[in-house]
């Protein structure tokens, strides 16, 4: 097709060429175009989607997500679910590799979730999940909503088998586990649900080792651990562990549970716990010695408990009220027990939001 230098005919011809050109980038095979475009940093993906419909469809596709994962081009962002003093729920996102790291408010959550309490918050693939929960005037629900990080949109998803609130939520083996919690009168408190993305459905299970009041959970060595509060009778912390290989729950080892008294995160198979009973101190579980070791104390000037933990690579992000954040590199553990020095991200201005949960999502 020949271009003209003037008039409406030139404009119409250009539009016709663009509409009939099947290539992502004119003159390049699509595999080469994908090779180039997939290397664009994640923070610019929203701009790529504005170039053309084909580029938008590509950036939103499973092909794009899989390609970036397969070639180790995916970038991890941190998502924090927060509650303000008016009990309003919101979600913030942080790019930990940005030269000007700061928390940014995500788009508004579905209205029905704005004041819901006790929700599960989890990540599977390129999607965030908000599960269950309850309100002041409503009981527990089985509703599930998902946020697609590539599409940048919220959708209603397959419902839980059982209505739940204040329950544990973890991912293992490519499935979501919703464990214990409080539910409707017909719900079994000794149960858990599993979500299989291949069938887009939930399946319910029961086990007497599961208790409804779960305070924390973590996945370590392919097993799911749940921790409950301290018993007023025995003074002991109850915890159970689930092994997906045989589908059974058992009591967790008492020596490991004894030091699990705060938010936990696993880095390279090592369990770290933030002890907030007196200041903030990072502890590490040494499996070989079967004992807890202090990693270091965090400055009270930087941390604002209660905090949540999340890990990106070798770094642990300690996220407190108002999203004040301290970043600790666990490779620097030579000064056991001393005050730890790490980088920090300032809190949001005029914000004292409580951080309910934090998750990582890579695209």
Automatic annotation (TrEMBL):
Keywords: Kelch repeat, Repeat. Pfam families: F-box, Kelch_FKB95. The keyword Repeat applies. CDD domains: F-box_AtAFR-like. Residues 28-68 form the F-box domain. PANTHER family: F-BOX DOMAIN-CONTAINING PROTEIN, OS02G0202900 PROTEIN. This is F-box domain-containing protein. It comes from Acacia crassicarpa (northern wattle).
